[in-house]
Write a structure and sequence with these properties.
- The structure holds two protein chains of two kinds.
- Chain A is built from no helices and twelve strands.
- Chain A is mostly beta strands.
- Chain A is globular and about 45 Å long.
- In chain B, about 0% of the residues lie in helices and about 45% in strands.
- The radius of gyration of chain B is 13 Å and the shape is globular.
- The interface between A and B is medium-sized, with 26 and 27 residues.
Chain lengths: ~120, ~110
């Protein structure tokens, strides 16, 4: 069965530190890739997505992610985090063979940024 | 509407009772998803509706769970004879079409005593 692995369940950083959250998936075919974020008290919302083209995608609030097909990875990065980045981050994969409906989510990574 | 809405926001019920959870998707969105998020877990796919096509029910954990979508808009998730392990946050999302960005509602927190 397809799965999505997020390597870190909890991450604590100081402001201005660099961030990288790992995401690996187990599906060999064509995929759409997403990172969603849930800020405290808010709905899940899209941070960025990759469908095709340049494997380095940029999202909101200075986040970016790189799709490395050979490694089945889609890691999220930010050069300098802010206190307001404290949130839970979810990687999601949409395997093409399902017709697009069964999006598989990782377990999430809780990020806490110390001011 | 401005976004996806869900009701109720919280539901406390006794084991064995039936519950209905409602989702109003963004107007015009043809795709609608239900997920379950248990404490410390990721989002577990439950069911998907796309337009007038037959729904993908492959994620429903048991036959106690069912869902319908009336008129291609509002959806209701029904859990019959609730069990304590059904306690979770139930999230609804919609998208303009399959494989596109999903817009999530605030969720319904279900507690089964």
């Amino acid at each position: 069965a397809q799965s999505v692995s997020q390597h870190n369940h909890h991450v604590i950083l100081s402001e201005a530190a660099s961030l990288e959250l790992g995401c690996n998936y187990s599906y060999g075919g064509t995929v759409n890739l997403f990172w969603y974020v849930q800020y405290p008290g808010q709905h899940l919302q899209l941070l960025l997505k990759y469908f095709s083209g340049d494997p380095l995608v940029k999202g909101i609030k200075g986040f970016e992610a790189e799709f490395i097909k050979s490694k089945f990875s889609f890691n999220l990065r930010k050069p300098s985090v802010q206190w307001s980045d404290t949130a839970e981050y979810f990687c999601a994969v949409n395997p093409a063979h399902t017709g697009g409906f069964k999006t598989i989510f990782g377990a999430g990574t809780r990020l806490f940024v110390k001011a | 509407g401005a976004g996806v809405s869900q009701s109720p926001s919280n539901k406390v019920t006794e084991k064995g009772k039936d519950v209905e959870l409602r989702c109003d998707p963004i107007s015009g969105h043809t795709a609608l998803y239900w997920y379950r998020q248990s404490l410390g877990q990721g989002l577990e796919f439950l069911i998907y509706f796309q337009g007038n096509s037959a729904p993908d029910k492959s994620g429903l954990p048991s036959d106690r769970f069912s869902a319908e979508r009336t008129g291609g808009s509002v959806s209701t998730l029904t859990i019959q004879r609730t069990q304590q392990e059904d306690s979770a946050v139930y999230l609804c999302a919609s998208s303009s079409r399959a494989r596109e960005t999903q817009y999530f509602g605030p969720g319904t927190r279900l507690t089964v005593l």
